[in-house]
Amino acid sequence: MRTALTIAGSDSSGGAGIQADIKTMMANGVFAMSAITALTAQNTTGVSAIMNASPGFLREEIDEVFTDIFPDAVKIGMVSEASLIRVIAERLRHYRPACIVVDPVMVATSGAKLISDDAIAVLKEELFPIATILTPNIPETEVLSERTVQTPDDMIAAAQAIGQKYHCAVLCKGGHNLNDANDLLYRDGSCRWFNGKRIQNPNTHGTGCTLSSAIASNLAKGFDLDTSVERAKEYISGALGAMLDLGHGSGPMNHAFDQDGKFMREADGTHCGPDTDSSANAGNPSAADRSSADCPVPGKGGLS
Ligand SMILES: Nc1ncnc2c1ncn2[C@@H]1O[C@H](COP(=O)(O)OP(=O)(O)OP(=O)(O)O)[C@@H](O)[C@H]1O
Ligand SMILES: [Mg+2]
Predict the structure, then answer these.
(1) What pTM did the predictor assign?
(2) 179 located within any domain
(3) Kind and range of the H or E element at 22?
(4) Are residue 25 and residue 173 in the same domain, yes or no?
(5) 3-11 and 31-43 as β-strands: parallel, antiparallel, unpaired?
(6) Does the chain have fewer CB atoms within 10 Å around its N or its C terminus?
(7) Residue 131 maps to which CATH number?
(8) 201 CA from centroid of ligand 2 (Å)
(9) What is the per-residue pLDDT across 155-201, written as a single tens digit (0 to 9) for each?
């Protein structure tokens, strides 16, 4: 089985960050591993607290993964401190994994800057030059290219400028466009559009994490860059199109939209619970019957 490593922050609400990355990698058929850069306390309405890992601990996480199960691809998400970015760049230069997807998480959908200026400088100096592909959204593309991006031509010019500066491929994501969801890939001196129909779903928490992890998963499985982006785009469109609606804010997507196998199925009818305890229900045949039907035990038609 092919393997992928995500180096990113944890999202307690499960829709973005490490949790979204692992769900995406699993749904895309690779074995997922993680090195956590920060713990966040958040839900679909906002982030209330962040606790960064120490540089030494992050280094240990990365070393433990690489010296045992060497990943076929690495995805890097939110890293907000310069010292942590330096550790990641140094360890990746040491291990030299074949594919590195960098999601340069810098500007939130709200427009708020998520990392400090010195961390952005270290990202540019140390991480971008070793990336296979960068996946900035439009506000991040503007920061990185130092240009305003309003039209498809602006996306082309900006992606080109970034790719030429850092010698890597660039996917400028169009999720912030109003009328479409067209992403632009610049690689090896040329551009290709990956067109997407805009899905009217307010629950877009974690789209960036999900797309970059899907690209990393497909690269890990041996697909070329164009095919990996194409498959990742199809996956994110399916996850958004499944129209999951959880939480009070911008909710998560259904990463398992494509899995309807027997292990995904929920129980029919009643569930196991306190009222299924057979001693408590002695003399109540219907509850006792339900207990043995819902909680089968070895030798009683359950596990074999
Ligand atoms: N409403 C939508 N309908 C269809 N595709 C979408 C929609 N919103 C985002 N996408 C797609 O999701 C992917 C992620 O793009 P987006 O621009 O949302 O990234 P992002 O801003 O980095 O996300 P995040 O807010 O999670 O950091 C892109 O492929 C984009 O085209
Ligand atoms: Mg993003």
Answers:
(1) 0.88
(2) yes
(3) helix 17-27
(4) yes
(5) parallel
(6) C
(7) 3.40.1190.20
(8) 17
(9) 999 999 999 999 999 999 998 887 889 999 999 999 999 999 999 99
